[in-house]
Amino acid sequence: MIRFMLVQNRQGKTRLEKWYSNYTEHERRRLKAEVHRTVASRDQKHQSNFVEFQNHRIVYRRYAGLFFCFCIDTNDNELSLLEAIHLFVEVLDAYHGNVCELDLVFNFYWVYAILDEMFLAGEIQETSKGVILARMDQLGALE
After folding, report:
1. Which residues contact 117 (CB under 8 A, 6 or more apart)?
2. Collapsing DSSP states into helix, strand and coil, what is residue 106?
3. How far is CA 100 from CA 33, 92, 125, in A?
4. pTM attached to this predicted model
5. Burial group, residue 119, by CB count within 10 angstroms (0-12, 13-18, 19+)
6. What order of strands is seen across the sheet that includes strand 14-19?
7. Separation CA 83–CA 90 (nearest Å)
8. What distance in Å separates the CA atoms of residue 13 and residue 29, rounded to the nearest whole number?
9. Each residue's pLDDT tens digit, 76-135
């Protein structure tokens, strides 16, 4: 199960966050700082994208200046989540056209809609890029 999802820039500013487990506001601030400190200090070329973190595991991927980090249970499949992170970025690119950090900031409601189409209650729900984009088009037609 996914515990939480964070998208942070290189300076540690959180651009997107989704919590699937209950944490207090103090715990959330502490977790965001610890995750960034752990992920940003790793060597991108010689270390894996999986980090043991407390009683869980962080699966992350860096795209340009953004870290896409997911905290999962230790018995979950890391590679499938790594592929889900890549799919999430592909869908964002297809929807926004070469997505950047400012797209996440100014169009956060669409980013959360895409995230909610892909993940439900901490589990991967949809893995088809075409289906997700079709649903986003349907949502756009409602506006």
Report:
1. 125, 126, 132, 135, 136
2. helix
3. 22, 9, 25
4. 0.91
5. buried
6. 14-19, 2-9, 66-73, 56-63, 50-53
7. 10
8. 11
9. 999 999 999 999 999 999 988 888 889 889 989 999 999 999 999 999 999 999 999 999
DSSP label of 130: H
Among residues 78, 53, 47, 49, the alpha carbon closest in space to that of 63 is found at 49
**In a 10 Å sphere around its CB, with 0-12 CB exposed, 13-18 middle and 19+ buried, how is residue 124 labelled?**
middle
- Residues ≥6 apart with Cβ < 8 Å to 16: 5, 6, 7, 104, 108, 111, 112, 115
With 0-12 CB in 10 A as exposed, 13-18 as middle and 19+ as buried, what is 67?
Answer: buried
pLDDT digits (tens, 9 = 90+) for 4-37: 999 999 999 999 999 999 999 999 999 999 999 9
DSSP 76: S
Question: How far, in Å, CA of 5 to CA of 18, rounded?
Answer: 5
DSSP 55: T
Nearest one of 111, 109, 114 to 135, comparing CA atoms: 114
Q: Cα–chain-centroid distance for residue 56? A: 16
Backbone angles phi, psi at 102, to 5 degrees: -65, -30
